[in-house]
Amino acid sequence: MASEAEADARHEIKWSQSEEDITLRVLVDTETKKEDVKFKVLRDTLSVSIRGEEICDAQLVREVDPEESSWVLDNEGGQRLMIITLQKVRPKSALKSARQWPCLWKADA
Fold this sequence. Notes:
Blueprint: H1 4-11, E1 14-17, E2 21-28, E3 37-41, E4 45-50, E5 53-59, E6 64-76, E7 79-88, H2 96-99
């Protein structure tokens, strides 16, 4: 089983966030089709594999709404990307800083 760092290096996972969601951009093989992808998101966990190869299977640092989270395959600049959007669960605190995630994975917190 690959570590998160090894999977990140192999698939070039990049992530960003807004107040409402987390976006992961994963570089995948140009022939990747939706049938090749297994995607599972729970309130605190994200699991993705492509053609049986684990991309990630880890606990998120904060909760997301699985029903409002999604993924697509897209082509950009000659590269194939899997773009994952995770809808953040609003924290009870109204502070803007409480909506920002310090990192993606709980293991990195």
